[in-house]
Amino acid sequence: MGIFSGKKKGSNQALVEQVILENYQRYYRLAYGYVHHADDASDIVQNGAYKALKNCQSLKQPEYAATWVYRIMLNECFTCLRQPKHLSYEAVQEGNGAERGGREDHYMDVDLQRALDALDDKDRAIVMLKYFEDKKLEEIAQILDENLSTVKSRLYRCMKKLRGMLSEEDKNRIFSRQKQIIE
Amino acid sequence: MIQFSERKEQNDRLEEQIFFWKQEYQKPEMSKEQYHRLLARMEEAKKDKKKEQRKRQMTKYVAAAAVFLAAFIVVPNTSAKAAEAMGRLPVIGRLVEAVTFRNYTYESDRNMADIKVPKLQLGEQAGGQSAADKGQADGDGQQKLQSTTKEINAEIQKITDELVAEFEANLAYEGGYQDVVVDSEVLATAQDYFTLKLSCYQGAGSGYAWNYFYTINLHTGERLKLADLFQEGADYITPISDNIKKQMKEQMEADENITYWLDNEIEEWNFKKISEDVSFYLNEKGNVVICYNEGDVAPMYMGTVEFEIPAEAVNSIRK
Predict the structure, then answer these.
(1) Contact assignment for B45 to A28 by CB distance below 8 Å
(2) CA B309 from chain center: how many Å?
(3) Which domain holds residue A39?
(4) Which pLDDT tens digit goes with each residue over A157-174?
(5) What is the per-residue pLDDT across B297-310, written as a single tens digit (0 to 9) for each?
(6) Which CATH number is A3's domain given?
(7) Are the Cβ atoms of A54 and B45 closer than 8 angstroms?
(8) Cβ–Cβ under 8 Å, residues A98 and A105
(9) B71 and B177 share a domain?
(10) Based on the domain organization, do B217 and B235 belong to the same domain?
(11) Is residue A98 a part of any domain in this protein?
(12) Which of A6, A96, B183, B268 could disulfide-pair with A100, CB 3.0 to 4.6 Å?
């Protein structure tokens, strides 16, 4: 019995390692969606990977390894956001000014960063995982450790908010166009 | 109606927007450099995890090993004299003593070595007349003792040299982790015998611990072989093996965490009998203690194991 539990521990490590190596770009994008900064996002993934591997024996059900690592990565994102050193949206915008300026044309009316930053931590994860990573709601609920119905209603709320942002943006645009015409 | 179509328009617009956001979202990618840092951090995690496990294991293998982790010295101690002064062990054998001959320590992020090379030397009493006067060893025995300790020292030197060479060769391999620990102790043994136990631990991935036992008969000055303890031609293999099997069974019945390879489905792993050159020593009671390395007769997690053979099991054939 002892020898088998020993083997299981080893395979947990290999499994977690494999999951990380297969998905690190996904974690990176997810982190980037939170912090909008390459170094911070990279740190988040590194720290998450470290914690996942170091504590892989606490993963009780190997079939949930992927979900489990996602949850660790998300927690890292939340932790990073709560750190005082984390810059506000405006500060990041300023810092990235030149770099972002060149990419501005890729955005439509509301840029991704502003849309995401309008959502709270968990809502943001739901939107990113659902629409950008094509995850099923059941899986998202597992990652966030929430009820499926909670996730559904949160997603509905997010959509409403984003829709509101878009129409707000439209109004502003019409307004500024009218202003131009008048001038 | 107007409201409805407006709402629908908004929905389409949100869908369209999400399509573009998704493309935007997927743009950031980890750079090569960031990826390498990630890999390094993952290695670190595995190493730290192992270190924690090793800390737990170490107490099992080498009692004092935890202290070694604090060492940051990278200088192999080549001054035998200084090493002797520092490493003088309590003299238990009256004629032979063990001193630390050389220390090899190394500690870096990925590599750890603490190799204490012992050396046997003849005690002051053994320096000729006084020993002979006491009848400990006659001239022949004295000479024999000298050549025996020399032989053992050469063997220890060879073992540790190989471990050091292997360790240094592995240093060049940057992706790996390794630990090597060698320590020794003089065992409390029956009168007129001297036993040095050399314990080795080598970790890379999973750790492996093994021991060497060197026993000298101080009367004859010769190395003790297991057969020497028994009458000429007597079968000592069978009673000892049977006794070990009995002990294995009893231990397994008493504690479900204990496993020996006795009735394993992999027949070739099963313990059948001791070999003539099995490791052993004589304990204070004069009983034979049979020693096995990790994985020899039990799963690795059992560590190195020892079986003390009670006197009555072999009394009839002991010399």
Answers:
(1) no
(2) 23
(3) 1-86
(4) 999 999 888 888 777 777
(5) 988 778 889 999 99
(6) 1.10.1740.10
(7) yes
(8) no
(9) yes
(10) no
(11) no
(12) A96
- Best CA proximity match to B143, nearest among B153, B133, B131: B131
State phi, psi for A89 to the nearest 5 degrees.
-55, -45
B18 within a domain of the structure (yes/no): no
Q: How far is A46 from chain B (nearest CA, A)?
A: 5
How far is A118 from A162, CA to CA, in rounded Å?
8
Contacts of A110 (CB under 8 A, 6+ apart): A165, A166, A169, B17
Q: Determine the residue of chain B that is closest to A170 in CA distance.
A: B10
Long-range contacts of residues B166-171, Cβ cutoff 8 Å, at least 24 apart: B167/B106, B167/B111, B167/B113, B167/B115, B170/B111, B170/B204, B171/B111
Most distant CA pair in chain B, distance: 122
DSSP E strands, B173-239: 178-187, 193-204, 206-217
Q: Are residues B51 and B168 in the same domain?
A: yes
Total residues belonging to chain A: 183
Residue that finishes a domain, picked among B201, B221, B241: B221
* Closest Cβ–Cβ partner in B10, B46, B256 for A167: B10
Domain residues for the domain of B61 are 35-221
Give a yes or no: residue B180 inside a domain: yes
User: The whole model's pTM is what?
Assistant: 0.46
Q: What is the CATH number of the domain that holds B64?
A: 3.30.565.40
For B:164-223, CB contacts with A below 8 A are none
The alpha carbon of residue B294 is apart from the nearest alpha carbon of chain A, in Å, by: 13
Tell me whether residue B251 is in a domain: yes
- Give me the amino acid identity at B10: Q
Asked if the Cβ–Cβ distance from B299 to A3 is below 8 Å, we say yes
**Which chain B residues touch A45 with a CB distance below 8 Å?**
30, 34, 38
Residues lower than pLDDT 50 in chain A: 1-9, 97-108
Domain count, chain B: 2
